[in-house]
């Protein structure tokens, strides 16, 4: 069973109007999609496998999967959105934004702009300020760790002190003579 519902898609001109031309959906977009493959693709995007790429492209042709992944495609006229070859001549980012705005695909881009990613220059597990942002209980956990470590050090010192203060009796074995053996 094909994953996409329509075998034909209309080609959108850059001026925002459909020129009436349509094309068949590429076979890569008709590949069957299994949920375990979709999860595998999303967890292993960095790996460059052909089947993973085909599954990702096929998943991008289904509006329900796009919406489930959090993409904002409500204003897009048709999914998959196929643009004319004139889009390859766009050189400026601002012109690309204008084209995306014409087709209602700008909302997904704007959503990504809102996400702020903080660059950590230090290991967050060693940087107390960053660790407190990640885990508010980190300060308490670190304090408990230090108290436990202090207790272990004290116990070890007590054991060593006790060991040094008790007189130890050294027992020597008497040598075995050849006649006894």
From TrEMBL:
Signal peptide interval: none
Key word Cytoplasm present: no
Keywords of the record: Ribonucleoprotein, Ribosomal protein
Transmembrane is among the record's keywords: no
Gene Ontology CC, one term: ribosome
All copies of domain Large ribosomal subunit protein uL4 C-terminal, residue ranges: 111-152
InterPro entries membership: Ribos_uL4_C_dom, Ribosomal_uL4_dom_sf, Ribosomal_uL4_euk/arch
Pfam families the UniProt entry points to: Ribos_L4_asso_C
Family: Belongs to the universal ribosomal protein uL4 family.
Protein name: Large ribosomal subunit protein uL4 C-terminal domain-containing protein
The species this protein was found in: Riccia fluitans
